[in-house]
Hints:
Blueprint: H1 14-25, H2 29-36, H3 40-47, H4 55-64, E1 90-92, E2 111-117, E3 127-138, E4 149-156, E5 159-163, E6 166-170, E7 175-179, E8 184-188, E9 194-201
Antiparallel strand pairs: 1-2, 2-3, 3-9, 4-7, 4-9, 5-6, 5-8
Amino acid sequence: MTDVTDDPADVGSIGDRLRALRTEHGYSIRSLAERAEISSSVISEVERGKTEPSISTLKRVAGALGTSITYFFTAPSQMNGHVIRAKERITISSESDSDNGHEARTSMQAQGVHFELASPNASEVLEAIFGRYEIGASTGDELYSHEGEEWAMVLKGRFKITLADEVYFLNPGDSIWFQSTTPHKIENVANEVSEYIWIDTPKSF
Length: 205
């Protein structure tokens, strides 16, 4: 459970939070009212800030939405660093990216490769990378290595992963794990853009 914020301005109104969560669930005001066993007008008035809901009303609504009453008085999870929306991912590269405070992987020379940080800055040892490789793109001609371990899952396309003397071909849904000290190389061998989620620990960028 998230901590209760000291500043209500950081939370948004109860009505705003109610409307947002109802919308995320795909409920109409009427359907939520039926689930919570309260009138549609009450929910409508709360969402529009026309009335302050009673604790009993909030409990009914929270239960219908699968949460607790605390939800309406806490900061949204993405503000606490738990959620990274796709549009909020930070772009990183294999080259120096000092403006964002990221160290470069100097041993990797990637062309046609786009990386975005998919884990929050608050993460101390784990780093998640969304990677998009253009047709024929790779991490470079040479294998490279570093400290740590890695896990990845292919989202789209097809990747060739070279681990020392071993070669693996990964399709969507396939995953791989290995020690980062093993010399490795990543190539897009599909006739389309290929994408993955790649987990490093400790952080590499």
